[in-house]
Design brief:
Elements lengths: L8 E7 L3 H4 L2 H11 L3 H11 L2 E2 L11 E2 L9 H21 L6 E3 L2 E6 L1 H18 L9 E5 L20 E2 L2 E3 L6 E3 L1 H16 L4 H19 L8 H19 L7 H13 L6 H5 L14 H7 L7 H23 L8 E2 L2 E2 L9 H5 L2 H4 L1 H11 L14 H5 L4 H18 L12 H11 L5
Antiparallel strand pairs: 1-5, 1-6, 2-3, 4-5, 7-8, 8-9, 10-11
Amino acid sequence: MKTRLGEDVTVVRSDFKWFGPSLPHSTMFTVLRYYGVSDRWIGFFKKALEAPMQFIDDGPDAPVQVRKRGTPISGPLSDMLGESVLFCLDFAFNQRTNGVFLWRLHDDIWFWGDKSTCETGWNVMTEFAELMGLDFAEDKTGSVQIAASGSESTLTSSSVLPAGDVVWGFLKLDAKSGRFVINQKQVDKHIKELSLQLSSCKCVFDWIQAWNIYASRFFSTNFGSPANCFGRAHVDEILETFEKIQKQLFTNEGDNVTSVIKKMLSDRFDIQDIPEGYIYFPSSLGGLEVKSPFIKPILVRESLPASPQIYMDDFFRNEARVYKDAKEEFESRPVKKPHYAQGHEVNDSVEFFTFEEYTRYREFKSFELSEVFDLLMAEPRPRYLEYFEGNRCEYNRYDDPYHRWIMQLYGGEMVRRFGGLNVVQPGLLPMGMVTMFKKSRFQWRD
């Protein structure tokens, strides 16, 4: 949106290295004392944090050392103390940058704006880190400058802002296009890791568990959620990357998850003609519940705009039309003499204000622009799927879009094969034992 409004945008992302374990106790206690926390409470926190420790690996004669840094992980005490320190950064950043907001998820930090403002903000962050005894995580720290739409000028690099890419998960902000793209180098590394995990699985359940956790959940999460601001290109890139993952994992031509699992079942149990629905149906219906990473992106693809630029295109067209109508109405108004407004004579030759004046404060006053912002931030709705001709009562148990797609795709085959959607008669499958069996057996390989 900013680039379409004719502004260059600088984006900075950073993260503190081992923030919880490395936060000095002296920093926390000094901040609390500045906030007016009593010595009694500070003494209590000191008692809880500065625990005497002796590491077993150092031997029985190792000296007892008192902990001087860090807080317990994922506890209310660590959250309170960490946020107390980080609030100092929030406030200082806001004041020194004249009101710019620091977007923060605990110590995961994002901010953006014009180049000079971001440079001021980064100076605040480096000053804060030095004062508090903290370091930045270099692999999660970087900055990107994106030129205004249609601009032919070359942006000069900054000696103040951090070098490195702006990344989240497997997404990397591309300076040229101004959009997040999937970092294929990172994907390739994890494909090798997934291949190692799958090859070490000893049974079908373990293989499916590894695939569901790593290929479906882990990759999908790190590819980011589809949104209108990313457009359809993001979903297409997700689908292409998942296709690439399958091709690299299963080297035989035409192999995919379905054919590999069918072959595993055929080799181990001498079973032929295995219906695909059995592989993807939920375990509560007697299926193996293999997760397909393709379905969720496909369900939302058609709900996304071909390009997010269309929202701003519509906004500019409507803005120009409203201005033109208002100007024509102003110029065609009936004129009566003399004109008086609040006791002052009005000059009939007053001209309607220019388009530049009309649009000068659109970011502060335009309701239509705020609607465009909300549209860009919205997530697409999954495509609605009708019922297939089968047992509607069984179908209603799985009313989420993912399972509706599975039922639509494989329901007919399963009904013809088993007389219904249930592979196993309801009540005969010990679901608790099956779930526990899957979790207890599965282990990641180091």
